[in-house]
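Entry 14. Two folds queued back to back today. First construct below, sequence then structure tokens.
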Amino acid sequence: MPKLLTLLLLAISGFAQAPAPALPRADAVRIHEFYLLSPQIADQIWPGWKATPAPLLLVTKETEFLTHHPHPPAGFAKVTNDIYARPRQFPVNLLATFPAFGPPSVIVIGEPENTEAKTSTPWLFVLMHEHFHQLQDSQPGVFQAVDELGLSRGDKTGMWMLNYPFPYTRTELAHSFSALRDALLAALAEQGHAAFVAAANKYAADRKKFFAQLSEDDRKYLSFQLWKEGIARYTQVRAAELAARYQPTIEYQALPDFESFSEYASTARNQSLAELRKINLATDQRITVYSWGAAEGFLLDRLKPKWKESYFKNRFTLDPYFDSAK
């Protein structure tokens, strides 16, 4: 049995001599699969991503299990070589990536049934989404650069990223977004190169007009969210598509909710685009940026295939790619 899986499964019995509960077997198998899959596909999406540290904190009903952290903090008891545990502190449905214990950023995630993923395979690709946030957070000076956006308005917790008062419900803005969304979907639907480029240029022009309606801070906030969360969703979908030929371990295939990666990959992109078709800026608010930003990533793959080479240089905005779409 592979070493990592052996260590994870040992955690199940490791707490027999300790006060903390055991790591459920299904969780051990899922975590093992993530650390097997990620290095096989990461660099095909983002060169150098494979080298990014990927500490993970799994939140179960009673216990939090930490793995792959270079310096496990005080308060965690060692279970096996690379698994540490403490009583639960975070919500069981949490799904976030942040420097919970100081750098590096940690993926903090509940078990599949307690998150929107619900089952094992979608959960694995949500982990890839969160792991991409670790790549974003690993860029030199990124946290200072985020502070310098000037959007936190005194909030030191990072919750401003969720609670920023963007004018989602402004009627004219919501109507304008609906037209912009339709232009983006229309461009993606074009098959011929010339027709696609023309539709992409129309989208770029409409996008510029949409952003011109916003205040400076609102423009910075929306750009930041599309750059950060939208491209993380794009990465989640691309990870699923690249994993379509990956053969999961026997232990993973034996999970009661097993879904093959090829089956999930066949629907991941269409699901994200279907979500975008139904998005209402006024009611869905910040959730809008996930499918919108992912669709912009799909567009750029066709329009400017080398766009990723400057993604981390163009911090917190995708605007330069649409200034001259052709």
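Second construct, same run, same settings:
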Amino acid sequence: MADVEHSHWWYDASRQLLEEILGEHARQGGRFLDVGAGPGATGAWLAEHGDLVACDFMPLALDLHRERHDGDQQALGYVTADVQRLPFGDASFDLVLCVTVLCHQSIPRPQAAVDELARVVRPGGVVCLWEPGVRRLWRAHDRETHSARRFARRDLVELMTTAGLTVERASGAYSFLVPPAAVKSVLERGESTSDLDRNQGGLGGLLGTAAATERRALRHIDLPAGLTVFAVGRA
């Protein structure tokens, strides 16, 4: 992830989509939490708008985050912690971002994790969940990333609602990738490979262009499904 975060089309497209989804919520001077931050590939941009705390279960991920993103943005905090037991007080953050964490094998009960995210966000603040979509679309990439599950849009809605959050929007994304991913899931049966190892340029820019077209549509509508699903809930 760290090696390709600035060169892989998916990370560039995902950062742009997250900025569109959360731009109005990332008010200048706010306090933000990126849970499962990894090396900063999808959430480090929040530090441009306020104080960001990067939280991850793996110390190596935070070392890479600090190495690549510290010093050129506003104050960053780094906390090694389990999303199921966050070491923060109630109502500590204006915005909480959680990207591809609930799918992981280390999270036996996604609801417990979302309850924690809801606990640490301030009244009026927002939580954004972003997870792999299409429940039945199990692929080689899932095996490589130690994923235990994929999600439907309604799954994220239920998780947020149960945690006491009011869902403002829930949508699929990268819907154009579902058919080729379904084909790949058959061809790669039994294998364990990462999507990050190939097509960094997105087929000569074709996939990036498709993602940009979809982003324009997502400004007006929510999609019922996609290779990614996301939801935004307000405390």
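Quick look at the second one. The longest strand covers residues 121-132. The chain has one domain: 9-234.
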